[in-house]
Design brief:
- The chain is an alpha+beta fold.
- The protein contains seven helices and eleven strands.
- A four-stranded antiparallel beta sheet has the order 1-2-6-5, with helices on one face.
- A hairpin with a 5-residue loop joins strand 3 and strand 4.
- Helix 2 packs antiparallel against helix 3.
- The radius of gyration is 19 Å and the shape is globular.
């Protein structure tokens, strides 16, 4: 235990696990939100009054438990990555929020080891992506998305709303099981990109067109203006079943596409 009598974050019963993704300057962590009640009680003290109020507004105890776990795990992971030999406590971190609800580190922490971060959670699983100052200068923002294959979806209806014509054509040639997985691969890539630029659904997902079968990694064939496909690095991530996940790296201040 530390001097407060609490279990250190790295020694919790269900500590976050680092994903084996070898991208210089990027680290990815997956964690379970199904933490023991005693750990949640300790982590609750890390949250700001606003974060505690948001958690308390959740209708069910299980949702309140999950809300505390999301914020505390994010704080613990970021504090560890920011430390660089210093002592940074999870409760000391402060965040600000973008126009579409995307969280950012407050200015006091934003010029340290972490250039950007993003998170996503589905069911009881949390994914946190961190872009370090050691990453390529062309990467100024990062987005991640995590989704469960077990979640029921009407992929036919959704495909007409969020996929490009070329993506829809690819989907229609697959059987039901393959269609479900392929749709989710498109979805997590689009979500990761939109979260990287901090625009949410306002971009228009149907204007994004991805080639999932490209080698060695998926690539963007088209993106909404002013974003240039060649400026973005995309990955489908090695998360355990039943989840699929994606990462997008680029620059939210992209120049207009030549000739557009």
């Amino acid at each position: 235990m530390d001097h407060t009598g609490n279990t250190p974050f790295s020694e919790t019963v269900l500590a976050p696990q680092r994903l084996p993704v070898e991208i210089p300057g990027v680290s990815l962590w997956q964690a379970t939100l199904a933490q023991p009640d005693a750990v949640i009680a300790q982590w609750h003290a890390w949250l700001t009054p606003e974060e505690k109020q948001r958690a308390e507004r959740m209708a069910r105890p299980s949702l309140r438990h999950r809300a505390v776990a999301v914020r505390a795990l994010l704080r613990g992971i970021l504090a560890r990555e920011l430390a660089q030999g210093l002592t940074i406590s999870p409760e000391s971190l402060r965040f600000q929020t973008g126009a579409h609800g995307r969280p950012y580190l407050a200015a006091a922490f934003a010029d340290g080891a972490v250039r950007d971060f993003n998170l996503s959670h589905s069911g009881d699983s949390l994914l946190v992506g961190i872009l370090h100052h050691t990453a390529a200068p062309s990467w100024q923002c990062l987005g991640v998305d995590l989704e469960s294959l077990q979640r029921s979806r009407d992929t036919t209806r959704l495909a007409h709303r969020v996929l490009s014509a070329r993506e829809q054509d690819t989907l229609e040639r697959l059987n039901h099981e393959e269609r479900q997985r392929r749709f989710l691969h498109y979805w997590v890539l689009k979500e990761a990109f939109s979260k990287a630029v901090g625009a949410g659904f306002s971009l228009g997902f149907e204007a994004m067109d991805f080639d999932i079968d490209a080698t060695p990694a998926p690539r963007a064939r088209a993106l909404p203006e002013p974003y240039c496909p060649d400026d973005w690095t995309l990955r489908l991530l090695p998360v355990a079943a039943p989840f699929v996940a994606a990462l997008a790296l680029g620059n939210r201040e992209s120049e207009p596409i030549p000739g557009s």
